[in-house]
Amino acid sequence: MRTISPDLDRRWCICVGRLCRCRQAKTLAIADFEFRDTSGEVRDQTAEHEARLKAFDVALQGGLSGNQKIDLVALPCQAERCTIKDPGFVDLTKRARTASAKYLLIGQVHKMSTLVGRP
């Protein structure tokens, strides 16, 4: 019988019969994703883009928090958003280390024109 069980100290174990293998959960800090719009659209869509980006950040956090192999830690940021642009990569890595994160997830959503590549 195969069993996957979380432990109180954020370890996860896979057991087959009496044989078990346990691992420590990976600590991950997630920075807020940036949004880059190069579509050239005339209408100001800043509010819509911000709402979608916020929903994406929430979905990403929610999806990863359900993984027993990952232990999410919060980045100690003073600003409303904590991104690769502000405070920057070097500062984000320092903050991730301060939060005891072994891994740091950063990213950017890029909106391009739908006309790119069309003849």
Written account of the structure:
With 119 residues, the chain is α/β, with parallel strands linked by helices. It has one domain. It has two helices and eight strands. It has helices spanning 46-65, 89-98; strands spanning 2-6, 11-16, 19-24, 26-30, 34-38, 70-73, 103-105, 108-112. The strands form three sheets. The chain has a three-stranded antiparallel β-sheet with strand order 1-2-3, with no helix packed on it. Strands 6-4-7 form a three-stranded parallel β-sheet, with helices on both faces. A hairpin with a 4-residue loop joins strand 1 (2-6) and strand 2.
Could you write a compact summary of the structure shown?
This protein has one domain.
Number of domains: 1
- Give the integer mean of the pLDDT values: 82
- Give the strand order, joined by hyphens, for the main sheet: 1-2-3
**Roughly what percent helix?**
25-40%
Distance between the termini: 58 Å
Topology (elements, then pairings):
Layout: E1 2-6, E2 11-16, E3 19-24, E4 26-30, E5 34-38, H1 46-65, E6 70-73, H2 89-98, E7 103-105, E8 108-112
Parallel strand pairs: 4-6, 4-7, 5-8
Antiparallel strand pairs: 1-2, 2-3
